[in-house]
């Protein structure tokens, strides 16, 4: 095999961008597309060498492909990924890997049964060079032991028109959550990738504060880590202009990532050493300012992940984001929602049964009704770089 034949299930906003991305890659091709929406199928009907299917069952029964990309609403990620594995297909699932931890565990526990299949998740922001550089600085101990983390990520502004553009969006029944489940899976994944998981989460959140939606569109969470470090995570889809500022305080100094720049104020002497040995009442460690250089991003984020997925299949290279790692950021988001809605501090690992019962109750009261799909414009993945 010199090119991986990929089938995309769900060819909406993201799936259509994946078609355009794969067309630019030389290690994979789109051999099949599957969407329940007849208008979508009509749009791709004349594509050469691409078979079009109206359901996943039909695709798995008749399609000629090696791997699937699952780009449907989140509730279907796990069932479709499992179906793909049962049919011997490699899987790249969109983020989040699921709506809640209990469901995600079904996939995570199934993966070891298919050692010859690659199972990846679309955590495209892991491929940004700034994020890779921050991870390197943490992992090599350059920042010292982490003491405090603040991430304000409010650049996820969304209009009401966006929420109205898909009948599944922003309802408990159709989507299963709001900003924590749709926009923030990237940052929640990066949080666990950089720092591991906290042991306790206390969150405050608002449902439909800025939009006519039933799920959360504003969250502030306080995180407590096993080593005593603390974190604050703030997000919303209702604020403009938004902020994306990650501040990490370690023993060796303070890193700030904002406006595309990584700045590091480096302590000459680690903070604890200075605190315990200094003979000065008010002094603090000498510090110097470093503008941390990192390489410009050459390829589009989603392209990096798809190319890597195909190379994992063809050449056994390591995956950028194995799907099983997706359960961690998902658990962090679940913990925030559980804490915010139940007004209590939540310990990790979360009680996944409690979360599933809470979500079931929300779903039973959901006002979600199926609407006619809104007209969609084609989206080029490159144009989404800043949005996703
Ligand atoms: N990685 C990223 O940066 C990124 C960005 C946007 C969306 N996403 C993810 O992609 C997924 C889809 O989001 P979207 O914005 O493209 O949604 P969308 O509504 O624009 O598209 C979803 C498509 O799936 C189809 N579909 C629904 N159920 C199906 C089924 N059972 N079988 C086949 N087709 C089905 C719909 O008809 C629609 O065309 C979500 O999970 C979302 O989180 C990821």
Task: Describe the model.
- With 388 residues, this protein is α/β, with parallel strands linked by helices.
- The protein folds into two domains: 4-125 and 299-320, NAD(P)-binding Rossmann-like Domain (Rossmann fold, 3-Layer(aba) Sandwich), CATH 3.40.50; 128-296 and 329-364, 2-Layer Sandwich (Dihydrodipicolinate Reductase, domain 2).
- Helices cover 32% and strands 22% of the residues.
- The protein contains twelve helices and 15 strands.
- The protein has helices spanning 13-23, 38-43, 56-62, 77-86, 101-110, 129-139, 160-164, 185-195, 271-277, 301-315, 326-342, 352-364, and strands spanning 4-9, 28-34, 51-53, 67-70, 90-93, 119-121, 146-153, 200-207, 216-224, 230-236, 244-250, 253-258, 261-267, 287-292, 346-347.
- Strands 14-13-12-11-7-10-9-8-15 form a nine-stranded mixed sheet. A six-stranded parallel sheet has the order 3-2-1-4-5-6, with helices on both faces.
- β4 (67-70), α4 and β5 (90-93) form a beta-alpha-beta unit.
- α4 (77-86) runs parallel beside α5 (101-110), α5 packs antiparallel against α11 (326-342) and α8 crosses α11 (326-342).
- The longest helix is centred in the C-terminal third of the chain and has 17 residues, at 326-342.
- It is globular, with a radius of gyration of 22 Å.
- The two termini are 32 Å apart.
- Residues 372-388 have low confidence and may be disordered.
- The structure holds nicotinamide-adenine-dinucleotide.
- The site of nicotinamide-adenine-dinucleotide (NAD) has 25 residues, from α1.
